[in-house]
């Protein structure tokens, strides 16, 4: 069984999700929600899913970047994105710290903005303090594409979509992204779109644990 992934325009995607209580974390309902979110993410397929994306306003995300999702990418492309497989895991009530604010810009899509992609700058390295599905504290450090996934999913918990952060002129259908920009560098895409080079001074702000 999979859940319906809600699309942009649904109010839940624009609301700040609430934290789970200790009682909720250990409940059968939360266990079932995690399983359904995992199955829904894999069915899509996607590399991450936040509870608001299935209509549930809770601070809960699941992440998994399987090796088969990367099979079509060249070694050079994977190296450029600093992308490697990430095992399935759960983050509950996560708090984010930007460890390396260097902006890395690549095309990004979203299961809740189905069919589109755009250039989005994300911090190169982050750390997350959270609870796992058993309510145990976990600390996760991530760089490159994994850091991008985390930032994207945690944005959902605050009612933020990638379209709020995108380079507007770069918005494209995913089909056209594959047709025109696959294998092109970000600099080549920006030049072709008349955007010029991104300003390196506009680094990603550090967000402290709160």
Features:
210 residues, alpha+beta, 6 helices, globular
H/I helix tally? 6
Oligomer category: single chain
* C-alpha Rg (nearest Å): 17 Å
**Gap from first CA to last CA:** 36 Å
Q: Identify low-pLDDT runs.
A: none
What structural class should be given to the helix and strand makeup?
A: alpha+beta
The biggest beta sheet is recorded as: 6 strands, antiparallel
- Helicity range of the residues? 25-40%
Shape: globular
* Rounded mean pLDDT score: 94
What does this structure look like?
By secondary structure, the protein is an alpha+beta fold. The protein is 27% helix and 28% strand. Strands 1, 2, 3, 4, 5 and 6 form a six-stranded antiparallel beta sheet that branches. Strand 4 and strand 5 (137-143) form a beta hairpin. The chain starts with 21 loop residues before the first helix and ends in an 18-residue tail after the last helix.
Topology:
Layout: H1 22-25, H2 28-43, E1 48-50, E2 60-65, H3 75-81, E3 86-109, E4 116-131, E5 137-143, H4 144-157, E6 172-173, H5 174-181, H6 186-192
Antiparallel strand pairs: 1-2, 2-3, 3-4, 4-5, 4-6
Nutshell version of this structure?
With 210 residues, the protein is of the alpha+beta class.
């Amino acid at each position: 069984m999979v859940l319906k992934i809600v699309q942009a325009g649904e109010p839940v995607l624009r609301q700040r999700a609430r934290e789970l209580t200790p009682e909720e974390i250990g409940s059968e309902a939360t266990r079932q929600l995690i399983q359904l979110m995992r199955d829904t993410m894999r069915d899509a397929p996607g590399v991450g899913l936040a509870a608001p994306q299935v209509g549930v306003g809770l601070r809960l995300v699941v992440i998994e970047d399987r090796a088969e999702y990367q099979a079509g990418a060249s070694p050079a492309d994977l190296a450029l994105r600093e992308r490697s497989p990430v095992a399935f895991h759960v983050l509950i009530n996560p708090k984010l710290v930007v460890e390396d604010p260097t902006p890395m810009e690549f095309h990004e899509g979203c299961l809740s903005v189905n069919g589109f992609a755009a250039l989005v700058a994300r911090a190169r390295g982050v750390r997350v303090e959270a609870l796992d599905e058993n309510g145990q504290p976990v600390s996760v450090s991530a760089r490159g594409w994994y850091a991008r996934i985390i930032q994207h999913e945690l944005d959902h918990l605050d009612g933020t979509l990638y379209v709020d952060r995108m380079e507007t002129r770069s918005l494209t259908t995913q089909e056209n992204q594959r047709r025109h920009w696959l294998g092109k560098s970000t600099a080549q895409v920006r030049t072709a779109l008349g955007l010029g080079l991104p300003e390196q001074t506009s680094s990603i702000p550090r967000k402290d644990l709160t």
